[in-house]
Amino acid sequence: MTNSSLHSALELLGWSGFFADQVKPTEADLVPRRVASVHRARIEAMGTTGSIRLELPANANTADFAVGDWVLADPRSDMLVRRLDRKTVFKRRPEVGRGQQLVAANIDTLLIVTSCNADFNIERLERYLIMANQAGSKPVVVLTKADTAEDVGIFQAKAEALQRDLPVVALNGRSADASSLLSSWCGAGQTIALVGSSGVGKSTLVNTLTRLESNAQQKTGTIREHDAQGRHTTTARSLHPIPGGGWVIDTPGIRTLYVSDITDGIDTLFSDIKELAQLCRFRDCTHAHEPGCAVQAAVKSGTLAADRVERWRSLVSENRDRTPVISGPRGNKIVRKKKY
Ligand SMILES: Nc1nc2c(ncn2[C@@H]2O[C@H](COP(=O)(O)OP(=O)(O)OP(=O)(O)O)[C@@H](O)[C@H]2O)c(=O)[nH]1
Ligand SMILES: [Zn+2]
After folding, report:
1. Is the distance from the beta carbon of residue 147 to the nearest atom of ligand 1 less than 6 Å?
2. Contact in structure between 248 and 209 (CB atoms under 8 Å)
3. What separation in angstroms does the CA of 145 have from each of 55, 108, 256, 337?
4. Is 61 exposed, middle or buried (0-12, 13-18, 19+ CB in 10 A)?
5. Global model pTM greater than 0.90
6. Helical H runs in 113-176?
7. How far apart, in whole angstroms, are the C-alpha atoms of residue 301 and residue 287?
8. Residue nearest atom 24 of ligand 1, based on CA coordinates
9. Where do the domains of the chain lie, and which CATH numbers do they carry?
């Protein structure tokens, strides 16, 4: 492969200047690989010639890698050498134990999926938006089951009001049109992921985007490989190609991520309120009763919805409560967890 065709083949996998700039001159002999699935003792990766199993250094811990990561590997031995810095990363706090579990990396766009029915919930959408903002991924709200709703416009308007310049797409996830409606985020080298509650139509949408017949789904969603005895085993892969060049990361854990330690994400979601808050007379204004409060003034004048301010206040205080703080020699304080 020539250098430029190699380069464009990598770009189809999501490679960009952000990653290329991290490769040192001494690493010119190494090749970039994109992590497609992470197992306890094994990492599968995609290269320009298909998927391979990476050899892991003795001290490697697969928990340090996420689906979507870019790594440098030795092309002769397939030995993983190092991981490149991530553009975006989603982590979750595990059900038990401390620390954060990596879920997926380098997702350009997060499709926040909800349906045009009782699932539609402003508070839940805000949590997902905060999560996307925090990770650095561009959020897009996808309203599924538009074919069953009487007035999609109501849902659309409510979702659009949640964050500045937020794209909102209403569609029927079972129809092929869904792919074209989402195509601007699924182009060559673009990586998306879907979050949303159970039953909103995430699997349906993934299937439509990857345009698979139901009997072909299993085949494409998995990698055939030889196990130690030379038998064929089938393992789940989490990085699925979208016709047109993009990738959808569909990995356990990403569909129902929940929020904690998300100060930056909250600030982006409520940037309008944040800007107003800087105009308050008092630096430590709580925006409840103080004179000269720009937030309350905006509510009074009708340019800012009072319930939006309420949701902002409760998310800020919840984030404060749930973000672990070091509390001396015993380490992290226990945080109360609320699931959505
Ligand atoms: N009418 C209509 N039905 C849909 C649409 N999207 C999904 N469905 C149906 O809704 C049901 C749930 O869809 P799934 O794709 O399984 O939902 P999911 O979000 O993957 O659910 P989990 O796997 O539980 O997380 C299925 O019966 C789908 O056929 C849509 O846009 N319109
Ligand atoms: Zn104020």
Report:
1. yes
2. yes
3. 44, 24, 19, 31
4. exposed
5. no
6. 122-135, 152-160
7. 15
8. 198
9. 3-85 (2.40.50.140), 104-249 (3.40.50.300), 263-322 (1.10.40.50)
- Kindly state the DSSP code that residue 99 receives in the 8-state scheme: S
List, for residues 207-228, the tens digit of each pLDDT value: 999 985 444 443 444 444 444 4
Cα separation, 30 vs 37, in Å, equals 21
pLDDT of residue 337: 42
What's the Cα-to-Cα distance from 338 to each of 43, 123, 165, 308, rounded to whole Å? 32, 13, 28, 20
Question: Which pLDDT does position 123 carry in this prediction?
Answer: 83
- How high is the mean pLDDT of the chain? 83
N-to-C CA span, the chain? 48
261 Cα to the center of ligand 2, angstroms: 23
* CA pair distance 135, 108, nearest whole angstrom: 10
DSSP calls for 243-260: TTS-EEE--TTTTT----
Mutate to test the pocket of ligand 1, among 174, 204, 205 (most ligand atoms within 8 A of CB): 204
pLDDT over 50 at 101, yes or no: yes
Model pLDDT for residues 303-320, shown as the tens digit of each residue: 999 999 998 988 887 777
Distances (CA, A) of 261 to 133, 320, 325: 12, 8, 10
Residues 6+ apart with CB under 8 A from 299: 305, 306, 309
